[in-house]
Each structure stands twice: as structure tokens, then as C-alpha cells.
Specification:
Elements (H helix, E strand, L loop, with lengths): L2 E5 L4 H12 L3 E6 L12 E4 L5 H11 L3 E4 L11 H21 L4 E5 L31 H20 L4 E7 L2 E2 L1 H4 L10 H6 L1 H4 L7 E2 H14 L7 E5 L10 H8 L4 H4 L2 E2 L8 H7 L7 H5 L10 E2 L12 H7 L3
Parallel strand pairs: 1-2, 1-4, 2-3, 4-5, 5-6, 6-9, 7-8
Antiparallel strand pairs: 10-11
Helix pairs in contact: 1-8, 2-3, 3-4
Pfam families: Epimerase
GO molecular function: oxidoreductase activity; UDP-glucose 4-epimerase activity
Protein name: UDP-glucose 4-epimerase
Length: 330
């Protein structure tokens, strides 16, 4: 059993992550702005703390006596606060939390990043070098939220250079997280049900149809923590489903919403997603257990199984900047 501290444990992803790790037999400590009444956190130690306060964060994280630290706490929705507030809050918390983890001697530290660091939905246009997108795709953040997540990844790299192998770090980019209750009809983060997102491709297009079940994020984190001492330090991983959150192949859908991707998207055949989880499979031996078809009880269509050519992964206009702002979070 490992004692794991999770910042933002009362948040949307945090609750599922804490519940999954606790169910796997680990001892959890949640750090958030306030003690939560959420069912997933009942019976667990909770610490109320302002993580933007350096001294308070340092004391609280030392008090956890944790073997591992997972940093999720952040302003989680782009444009939900002024840009300077988002950048200052998220970047400060990342530095405070992870520096506090180092000072406390916690040997394993992981931070949540975001696929938005890649810069899709940029109002002046965006094209990747290729699909599927992966950890080699060049980050091009265009808003404060994406920039703050890119800075979190760079904070991991900075601290790894300072500490060498004394502390093992990693960052992960979870795709659009769907919690267990959302398969049953609860609203997703952007205010729609999963079935509504499937029925109207324009709703999932801003996130490039990516998604991941929150329970799969929990298994990813557990797998990562076990592997940290053996893999290169400060690695970054995409964490996503094996398929896209779409009823039609992305080779058809992406060109409708991302101008200029006709040839690039042709690589995404069948049910293949735009984001590859191949690195997590290759390096960690992890792969997701959940798909939207499995959760909704729908069979595969004639599109066939996920298959992106040349990779290990599996309305008729582009979204406007305003619509991108509403759904830019992956």
C-alpha cells in the first residue's frame, strides 16, 4: 500500500482518481480549498489549504507524509476567469506544490497537464504536422489555461534537473474526462450529456473528439507510480481512450471542423482517435479499459476497429473562436 496525496482531490477528476486509487488499496490524502462532502472522499483524510500560499502549501504537503504526490488542483476551465488570474493561479500552484513535494522528500511527484498545450482551436488557425497527435507534437498554447499547463510540464522538467534521480517526476495529459455517472446521463464538463455530444459532432469537435474514462485515468496513475523508478525522469504521457468520441471516422469529421486537415485526417481510419496513447502502452504497459460504445451498450459500426495508419494508436464549418472558448478544455 502506498500513501498518496492528491491536490484537487475534491474536483471532478480528483474524486474519481481518489476513489480508484483507494479501491486499489492505497491510502489517500486529499488537499483542496475546503473539505468536501463528496461520497468518494468520505472516510479519507482531507486537508483544506490554499495552495497558492507557498508557506501553507509547504506545511500541508509535508503533513501528508506521502509516498507519492499527484497534482491536479487548478482553475480547470479556460476563460472561466481572467487570463492573468488563470495563469498566475495555475502556475503558482504547480510550482508551490511540486517544490513542496521535493522539500518534503516525497520520492514520486506527478502533475496533470492537458492536451490543450498543443494549441488546437487557435482562432488564427492551427494545423499539426500529422495525426494522430502524440508526445512529439510541438506544443503551441494560445490561451492562459494551455500556457499554464505547459508551464506545469516545464516545472516538472526544471525540478528534475535540480534533483536528478532523487525525485522521480512525470506529467500526464488526460483527454476530455468522462466520470462514471456521466455515462448514465449526468452532464459532462461542458454542460452536455455524452449522448448529446455523440449526436452533435459540433459539441465534441473543439476537443478533437478526444475523451477518457476517469477510471482509466486512475489505473494509468497507479501504473505510472509503479513504473516511475524505472523509466526516464520527467516523461510526459497522453492518457486517452482507444477510440474517438464520434459515430463517424475522424477522417470524415475533422476536415469539417479543422480547415486544412483533409490529407492529415485521412490517416485516422475506422474509430481511431486524434490523440495516440501508444507511448503509455509502450513505456508503461497501460491501456484503457473503457470505451463509449461499451459504456452505452452500442456495438462497433461498419467503421470497424480503431486503426490509425502508420501509428500504434488506434455542422459543416470550423468552430468559431467563441465556440472554441466554451469547449477548449480537453
Amino acid at each position: 500500500m502506498t500513501r498518496i496525496a492528491v491536490t484537487g482531490g475534491a474536483g471532478r477528476l480528483g474524486r474519481s482518481l481518489v476513489a480508484g486509487l483507494a479501491a486499489a488499496g492505497h491510502e489517500l490524502v486529499s488537499l483542496d480549498r475546503a473539505v468536501s462532502e463528496a461520497g468518494e472522499l468520505q472516510g479519507l483524510q482531507q486537508i483544506a489549504v490554499d495552495l497558492t500560499d507557498t508557506d501553507a502549501a509547504t506545511r500541508a504537503i509535508a503533513d501528508t507524509r506521502a509516498d507519492a504526490l499527484i497534482h491536479l488542483a487548478a482553475i480547470a476551465v479556460p476563460f472561466s476567469a481572467p487570463e492573468d488570474v488563470i495563469l498566475r493561479t495555475n502556475a503558482t500552484m504547480a510550482l508551490n506544490v511540486m517544490s513542496a513535494g521535493v522539500a518534503a522528500g516525497i520520492p514520486k511527484i506527478v502533475t496533470a497537464s492537458s492536451p490543450t498545450v498543443l494549441g488546437y482551436n487557435c482562432p488564427t488557425g492551427w494545423l499539426p504536422d500529422r495525426f494522430p497527435l502524440d508526445e512529439e507534437t510541438t506544443p503551441k498554447p494560445w490561451n492562459a489555461y494551455a500556457l499554464s499547463k505547459h508551464l506545469a510540464e516545464q516545472t516538472v522538467a526544471m525540478l528534475a534537473r535540480q534533483t536528478g534521480d532523487a525525485t522521480r517526476f512525470a506529467a500526464f495529459r488526460p483527454c476530455y474526462v468522462i466520470a462514471p455517472e456521466e455515462w448514465q446521463g449526468a452532464l459532462t464538463q461542458q454542460g452536455h450529456t455524452v449522448r448529446e455530444r455523440l449526436a452533435d459532432p459540433a459539441l465534441s469537435a473543439p476537443a478533437l473528439f478526444n475523451y477518457v474514462d476517469a477510471r482509466d485515468v486512475a489505473t494509468f496513475v497507479e501504473t505510472l507510480l509503479v513504473a516511475l523508478p524505472e523509466i526516464p525522469n520527467a516523461e510526459v504521457f497522453f492518457v486517452g481512450a482507444d477510440d474517438a468520441l464520434a459515430r463517424r471516422p475522424l477522417a470524415e469529421l475533422l476536415p469539417q471542423f479543422v480547415p486544412g486537415t483533409d490529407d492529415l485526417a485521412a490517416e485516422l481510419t475506422g474509430t481511431a482517435p486524434a490523440f495516440s496513447n501508444a507511448k503509455a502502452r509502450r513505456v508503461l504497459g497501460w491501456r484503457p479499459a473503457h470505451t463509449w460504445r461499451g459504456e452505452l451498450g452500442e456495438p462497433l459500426t461498419d467503421a470497424g476497429p480503431a486503426n490509425a495508419k502508420g501509428s500504434d494508436s488506434t455542422p459543416d464549418s470550423a468552430p468559431t473562436p467563441d465556440s472554441a472558448r466554451k469547449d477548449v478544455l480537453a
